[in-house]
Amino acid sequence: MNASFTDTALLAAQVLLGVALLPAFVRLVLGPRAQDRVLALDTLYVVAMLSILVHGLRTDSPYYFESALVIAALGFASTAAAARFLLRGEVIE
Fold it and tell me: For residue 29, what pLDDT is reported?
């Protein structure tokens, strides 16, 4: 595999991930229920994490991978807290 094919594939992946952000953002703003908004926020952080990982692959920098790991951990915790809040009405008992 040559470098130009890899660069083109990573650029296409970044463009497609950017396109995937749009419907999730629309669902976040226009979602009729709170559950739809939580799911859209979950999708947004996953797509943002993946786009940071792809950018890290393109630039060959290890710092992007660490930031993607932080985004993944915080996104999971926030999704769990939001789901618990929607189910019980409180996060901390």
Answer: 94
> Could you tell me where the beta strands, DSSP code E, fall in 1-93?
none
Domain holding 68, by residue range, is 18-88
- Phi-psi region at 33: left, alpha or beta (left = phi > 0; alpha = psi -120 to 50): beta
Each residue's pLDDT tens digit, 6-55:
899 999 999 999 999 999 999 999 989 888 988 999 999 999 999 999 99
Is 9 inside any structural domain?
no
Has residue 1 been placed in a domain?
A: no
pTM assigned to the model: 0.82
Exposed/middle/buried for residue 12 (C-beta within 10 Å: 0-12, 13-18, 19+): exposed
